Structures are given as C-alpha cells and as structure tokens.
C-alpha cells in the first residue's frame, strides 16, 4: 500500500467490524442455525450456504434462512419469524464462541493500532450482548473501548448511524475515524457517514468480490493496516512510549 494514499491522512481512531474482520464466526452461525432449523423440523444449511447471508444482522439472517428452507419460497410471517428468532437467540447464546476463531493477523493488528494510540471501537451488526460476550471469551474485549451492536441504535450498518454515533462519542469528525470491515455493508455505512474505509479480504462479503466493494483499500492482514498508518506518520497518533 502506497503511503501517499489519502485514506491514511489524519486518522485519530478506528471502528472495527467483528464477524469476518476480527473473528471467523461462521462455525457459530452454523451451530446456532442448525439448532434452530432442527427445532423447526427443517434441514440444516451448509457453511457455504450460510456465509453469503452473514453481515446484515440477525433478523436478515434468520428471515433469509427461513425463506430458503421453507416448503415454499414465501417470506416467513411474523409469528413464524418471532418463533425462529427466539430459538436462534437461545441457541446462539449457548454456543457463542464455541466454533469461532480469531483471525491470524488480528492480535498483531490490534497491538499495532494500539501502539499508535488510536482508540478502537467495535461496531458490529451482531447483537451487542453477543458481541461483548464473544470478545470477552476470546480475550479481545480489553482491546476496544466500546462495543456497539446491531441493536445499539435505531438503524444498523449499512446505515451510517452507528458510525456517526461512534464518531460523536469519540469526539471526532467521521473523516478522522477509519472503518475497518470485511464487506460492502461496512463500506456503504462508511461512505454515507463520511469515514474512510478499508476492508479485509478474508471475511464475508455476501458472496461478492471484496475488491469491488468501494473501499479505499483492501488488506489481507490486519497488522498491514496498522503498518500503513504508522508509515504515514499519523499526526494524531504517537508511537507507544512517546510523550507529549
Ligand atoms: O450480521 C452479523 O451478525 C455480523 O455482522 P458484522 O459483520 O457487522 O460483525
Ligand atoms: Mg463483517
């Protein structure tokens, strides 16, 4: 990545997506959905079928899965959806973290961003309580100052609201807050909020090419994002140990 890239200029904080960016959670989605589908008397889906549906929040996931596994392709009615969601949440709470792993470059990437004194905030579409519990389980909770979930605000990504609220809480203009995600959902939210955005190539992008998602840059490793920011000599960030 060229150090002349504009997105690196003036970054003072980072918003981090969770599923597909920090943690590979596909196994957890598979376990919880399989539990729900069994309870509803339906056949489970494969991971390959589940992956493109992840990233737009729980209701979108469950609604789409019900539609794909139903006798007809009709959308579920409200009662059916409510029953499925209750089952899914109960299964997810029980298995949360059992089949999830932190991506290889993430510990180094978080350490690299922290070494630049950038506050890190998790902005995910996963429900807040589940996201918080997962980060704790994986020993990542202390790396971020705040966790916002898909139920934290009136609207979730790709709406800009969570990113605008997070920037406001940090006391920074969105142009100085970098969104780090894995999908067009993150890129759309960032563009609408006025945040620069980079995407990780290893996550879930709804089955589409992440390089076509409209990000400022795409990286294969999270520590490469920190290195690019460090190389640009961030004005708002000081190297670890450096004093004012
Ligand atoms: O839809 C989800 O639950 C996952 O969302 P995330 O990629 O925003 O973390
Ligand atoms: Mg994601």
Automatic annotation (TrEMBL):
It comes from the Bacteria. Pathway: Organic acid metabolism; glycolate biosynthesis; glycolate from 2-phosphoglycolate: step 1/1. Keywords: Calvin cycle, Carbohydrate metabolism, Hydrolase, Magnesium, Metal-binding. Its cofactor is Mg(2+). Its EC number is 3.1.3.18. It catalyses: 2-phosphoglycolate + H2O = glycolate + phosphate. GO terms for molecular function: metal ion binding; phosphoglycolate phosphatase activity. Mg(2+) binds at residues 17, 19, 182. InterPro entries: HAD-like_hydrolase_sf, HAD-like_sf, HAD-SF_hydro_IA, HAD_sf, PGP-like_dom2, PGPase_prok. HAMAP family: GPH_hydrolase_bact (MF_00495). Belongs to the HAD-like hydrolase superfamily. CbbY/CbbZ/Gph/YieH family. Specifically catalyzes the dephosphorylation of 2-phosphoglycolate. Is involved in the dissimilation of the intracellular 2-phosphoglycolate formed during the DNA repair of 3'-phosphoglycolate ends, a major class of DNA lesions induced by oxidative stress. This is Phosphoglycolate phosphatase. It comes from Comamonas serinivorans.
